[in-house]
Design a protein that fits this description.
The protein has about 300 residues and is mainly α. The protein contains 15 helices and no strands. The chain has helices at about 5-25, 30-55, 60-65, 65-85, 90-105, 110-150, 155-160, 165-175, 185-195, 195-210, 210-215, 220-240, 245-255, 265-270, 275-300.
Length: about 300
């Protein structure tokens, strides 16, 4: 079993655990919101801070183009998806519940181990740089959703300015550049907390699964799978080719773009009161489909 299969099957197992815990009434959908708060305000900031704090920032001049490729691919995919979805005459909540899934890729939890398993530490480092774009997309979508669903420009700026993941980026960069030691105890504590982010998001995803809703969401699931697993990496392939990326730079950027929908899209859906059941359905199905599409794309490049 290769790195791709292990990673995707691990994700499915954790999602299944959440669903099982709901079925036996150990947890319920009411637990999704507190889980989301723990992830958003504690675990995710720790994960982001530790990844940036331990990254080799001296390679920024060389690897700084990688976040641009993911960011540009996401924006192009989002714009094209927006105009296509507008033809379906969807309400705003449904439309944005779908858009967040096509614009956010699972560049960290799936991207890290896949690139590490295939290309070693060099691939892992490049995956970290690609993941910086995912955080930017997350912050951009947060800003848009605040404005879209009951917020002013001033309140949106204030909420983003106080957003814990953003401060995790700022502090991670500052502590790294200034070589500020945090000590082994704090380093371990932050690392352990960060490692808890993805499992808790996965369990929350499992809690939100409603198989009857999957049949009702069939058309949107098909749409998001095509846009995220085919169109998104195609745009990244075109951009990377046009700007002349080669070797690992090229391969990792396209592979990261080919990752299924990221779990942070579910956080957005829950936080801003979108249709999180639709979002979770789309994430679940295109994660399973990526078990087929990812190996194909890796072989092709």
């Amino acid at each position: 079993m290769d790195a791709i299969e292990v990673t995707i099957l691990s994700i499915i197992l954790m999602i299944a655990l959440g669903y099982f815990l709901k079925r036996i009434d150990f947890l319920s959908e009411k637990d999704i919101e507190p889980f989301n708060k723990i992830v958003m305000y504690i675990l995710m900031p720790c994960m982001i801070f530790h990844a940036i704090y331990t990254a080799d920032l001296s390679l920024i001049p060389k690897l700084g183009i990688l976040p641009f490729i993911i960011l540009a691919s996401s924006i192009v995919t989002g714009i094209v998806s927006y105009f296509i979805l507008k033809q379906f005459d969807l309400d705003d909540i449904t439309l944005w519940s779908v858009l967040v899934t096509v614009m956010i890729a699972n560049t960290a939890f799936m991207g890290y181990p896949v690139n590490l398993g295939i290309y070693g530490q060099a691939g892992f480092l490049r995956a970290i740089f690609c993941d910086m774009a995912t955080l930017c997309i997350f912050l951009l979508l947060s800003f848009v959703l605040i404005l879209k669903f009951g917020g002013t420009f001033k309140s949106a700026v204030r909420k983003i300015a106080l957003f814990p993941p953003l401060w995790a980026v700022v502090l991670g960069l500052c502590f790294n550049w200034l070589a500020i030691p945090i000590g082994p105890v704090i380093d371990n504590a932050v690392n352990y907390l960060g490692q808890g982010a993805i499992p808790l998001i996965m369990i929350a995803l499992g809690l939100s699964i409603d198989f009857s809703a999957i049949s009702r969401s069939k058309s949107m699931i098909v749409f998001t799978s095509i846009m995220k697993l085919a169109f998104f990496p195609l745009i990244a392939f075109v951009i990377a080719s046009q700007i002349g990326l080669v070797d690992l730079q090229f391969k990792v950027s396209v592979i990261e773009a080919a990752m299924p929908s990221g779990m942070m899209s579910l956080l957005l859906s829950i936080t801003y009161k979108l249709d999180y059941e639709l979002t979770s359905d789309c994430i679940l199905i295109n994660t399973v489909i990526s078990l087929i599409t990812l190996p194909i794309i890796i072989i092709l490049i």
